[in-house]
Amino acid sequence: MDSVSTPRFTLSPNPSPVSPERRAEVLANPGFGKIFTDHMALIRYTEGQGWHDPVIRAYAPITLDPAAAVLHYAQEIFEGMKAYRTAQGGISLFRPDANARRFRKSAERMAMAQLPEDLFVEAVCQLVKMDRDWVPARPDESLYIRPFMIASEAFLGVKPASEYLFMVIASPVGAYFGEQAVSVWVSEYCRAAPGGTGEAKCGGNYAASLMAQKEAKGHGCAQVLFLDAVERRWIEEMGGMNVFFVLDDGSLVTPPLTGTILRGITRDSILRIARDGGLTVREEPYAIDQMYADAASGRLREVFACGTAAVISPIGRFRGKQGEVVIGDGISIGPVTEKLRTNLIAIQRGNAPDPYGWVHKVI
Ligand SMILES: *Cc1c(COP(=O)(O)O)cnc(C)c1O
């Protein structure tokens, strides 16, 4: 992983890590994203100097100038990925190069400094190595990794910042939703418009989606489905996951990447696995009224959401201003969804061959 251009990480172990007893307690019931490991990675960027002083050090609060640009103009991007304990006892990442590439693209869209991809992967690997004892071992569990970058320059003028802070934190996690199908609210709020930031993984997109999320909860739904901002007709994605539809001929449909949808790595992996498994997959626009009609006629058999956190999560019901529609029995995972889920997880966890070179061994 070392290359001439990669600055050396300073490894500065936490002088008072969590006790093994307390860690065992956390790992027995990790929840999602509430508890963090002993360390974090940190790299600074300064215009004229580039990326400097990469370090792995104790997880701790950071200090920011109150005028830091991120606090005012939201120059912030992030990634989400996981480290898995494999059947062989090692630890692996899944397609970290794809996260590194997407992170660079997000930075480009937000006019932020672009972190070299090898430095991104190196930071993640160094942190995972340092916190290896925090990677849970049970099926459905993993170490969730959150790389992110903020504009740290103290300046209230509106312009791309000249200083950035890249960090990686990690949190042991269990299953995100559980196995049961979730209910989804079809929102009238929009997440992303053509020419906007929908394809960038930035915090601002999430801030804009929270009102819709709140509304969904009020209607008894766990997730939100967003439609396109122009015609309010074409299905785009969920607040933080892409979406797939399984039709009665066994084929899969998912909305195409037109710039307003996040390029999910799980989405891309499913497309590949499905196609190589002989399924017909179409990346094409799917209208919400068509979905309601197909659900009513029985043509639509299964629907699932996908993303790193939840992997593949069946959707059992949609609610919205057009009423409610139930998919399958509304509760269980469908056979096509289940097969894709099983196949993907087997590759991620090293329980199946990896013909695509997706698995990146850390230890
Ligand atoms: C992160 C994210 C996804 C899923 O991407 P993965 O790479 O599969 O984790 C989908 N939609 C949005 C809006 C996201 O932020």
TrEMBL record:
Region (Disordered): 1-21
Enzyme Commission number, as recorded: 2.6.1.42
PROSITE patterns: AA_TRANSFER_CLASS_4
Alphabetically ordered keywords of this record: Amino-acid biosynthesis, Aminotransferase, Branched-chain amino acid biosynthesis, Pyridoxal phosphate, Transferase
Polar residues bias spans: 1-13
Gene Ontology molecular functions: L-isoleucine-2-oxoglutarate transaminase activity; L-leucine-2-oxoglutarate transaminase activity; L-valine-2-oxoglutarate transaminase activity
Cofactor(s) for this UniProt protein: pyridoxal 5'-phosphate
Single Gene Ontology BP annotation: isoleucine biosynthetic process
UniProt xrefs under InterPro entries: Aminotrans_IV, Aminotrans_IV_CS, Aminotransferase-like, B_amino_transII, BCAT-like_C, BCAT-like_N, BCAT_family
Modification N6-(pyridoxal phosphate)lysine occurs at: 201
Name under which the protein is recorded: Branched-chain-amino-acid aminotransferase
Function of the molecule: Acts on leucine, isoleucine and valine.
Superkingdom: Bacteria
Catalysed reaction equations from the record: L-leucine + 2-oxoglutarate = 4-methyl-2-oxopentanoate + L-glutamate; L-isoleucine + 2-oxoglutarate = (S)-3-methyl-2-oxopentanoate + L-glutamate; L-valine + 2-oxoglutarate = 3-methyl-2-oxobutanoate + L-glutamate
Pathway(s) it belongs to: Amino-acid biosynthesis; L-isoleucine biosynthesis; L-isoleucine from 2-oxobutanoate: step 4/4; Amino-acid biosynthesis; L-leucine biosynthesis; L-leucine from 3-methyl-2-oxobutanoate: step 4/4; Amino-acid biosynthesis; L-valine biosynthesis; L-valine from pyruvate: step 4/4
UniProt similarity note: Belongs to the class-IV pyridoxal-phosphate-dependent aminotransferase family.
